[in-house]
Amino acid sequence: MGLLEDKTALVTGGSTGIGLATAVRMAEEGAHVFITGRRKTEFDAAVEVIGSSATPVIGDIADPADLDRLYDTVRDRGRGLDVLFANASVVKFVTLEEVTEEHFDTLFGINVRGLLFTVQKALPLLNDGASVILNGSTNVDSGPEALGVYSATKAATRSFARTWANELKGRGIRVNTVTPGPTDTPGLSGLAPDPDQAAIFRGHVAGQVPLGRLGRPEEIAAAVTFLASAQSSFVTGSSLYVDGGLNQI
To answer: What is the CATH number assigned to the segment(s) 8-180+218-240?
Structure first.
């Protein structure tokens, strides 16, 4: 029996990186996994990797109509939701002097507004005793340059987890944050302007991690699956750091 045998899960941003690795792991642990994302090419490839345990729904969490369509699909299956991994978010380097209204609105629209309504609209479908996991960031603690708006969105994420854990405790629903350190994903490489610069950037970031390397998406997925499963039944409102010691040592 897998850790999530006969459970139903939803992973937003499930077509690449941490989201895809988590969807694969949850499917391996016995769950039926709904995934959502915006880019069809990546989406189709993800479904092939996950296999028959996946139900794909293309959409943007910042669009309420897309969220409604997603949850209509979940509802039609008739099993509710046992696990929600609210993973989808965006990041971009922009200094205080360079911040525009568009940059602010994009990041807060997806990382905060989209997150809030992803969870709120899931409430009627969440089974009692369900697990909600929000994707956080170590940047909340460290104040890195040019990531002010992004870090602020992740501070909101951490605050949401605490409040929602309190509000949903009556239904036995646990809400936690997983807090990854630098992880070797397409999103991390995409912060650099070209592949050569991306390699240099990844090496620089890895050098700051006490374990001396970037995290692997599968390692974050393992932590999310722990928070999703009964193995973490006495854990709620917490932030589980999976950062190679970056913010711990």
So the answer is: 3.40.50.720
Which strand ranges, in their side-by-side order, compose the sheet holding 239-242? Answer: 54-58, 32-37, 8-12, 81-86, 126-135, 174-180, 239-242
Catalytic residue among 43, 85, 108, 150: 150
Q: In sequence order, which residues have a C-beta less than 8 Å from that of residue 127 and are 6 or more positions away?
A: 80, 81, 82
Structure tokens at 88: 């989808």
Give 115-151 pLDDT, tens digit per residue.
Answer: 999 999 999 999 999 999 999 999 999 989 999 999 9
Which residues make up the CATH 3.40.50.720 domain(s) of the chain?
Answer: 8-180+218-240
Q: Give strand ranges (E) for the chain.
A: 8-12, 32-37, 54-58, 81-86, 126-135, 174-180, 239-242
Instruction: Respond yes or no: is residue 150 known to be catalytic.
Output: yes
